[in-house]
Amino acid sequence: MNKSKIRELFEEVLVEIEEAGSFNNVRKGLEETPRRIAEMYCEIFDGYSKDPNDYVKLFDEAHDEIIISKDIEFYSMCMHHVIPFFGTADIAYLPDKTILGISKLARIVDHFAHRLNVQEKMTTDIADFIMGCKLKPKGVMVILRATHLCEVMRGVKKKEPVMITSAVRGIFLEKPHVKKETLSLISRR
After folding, report:
1. Which of 24, 65, 132, 156 is spaced 20 to 30 A from 15 at the CA atom?
2. Backbone angles phi and psi of 21, in degrees to 5
3. Do 18 and 40 fall within a single domain?
4. Mind listing the pLDDT tens digit for each residue in 89-121?
């Protein structure tokens, strides 16, 4: 990502918002904002510049039961309004021959969250990546719950809406009793 270009573009945006005519006329206190925005964008959109396979750390463990990581916090940016949405992810998988380092699920969520997104695609991207990576699980289930500020601070202006999306792959899709057990485990607090 080109920080200088983003800084220059955001200078132009501020001139328009402030109706300043030029960047030299913007309100005091905004001089460093374009630089800060450029640095922030490099951080919050780092999902474009990294490879999620770098987060896959496997361990040879003969574990043949469901593994769940719940309440993984995330934030992302709506691709339609470039306003944040944030929430939690629950990920369940049934290993085959190896297990994934537990912190790696959170890193995978962050990787896909740090892009311009719609929640539905982010959910399927996470599930499809886990199913296709070298972990090769028998199945995966991903559930995202999020509040979208584009629904809170603009448009319909609802107070606390929560959108829930899911992606179900492999054994969780093929065997309803496995899916039911997993949903039961996820719903426990």
Report:
1. 156
2. 85, -45
3. yes
4. 999 999 999 999 989 999 999 999 999 999 999
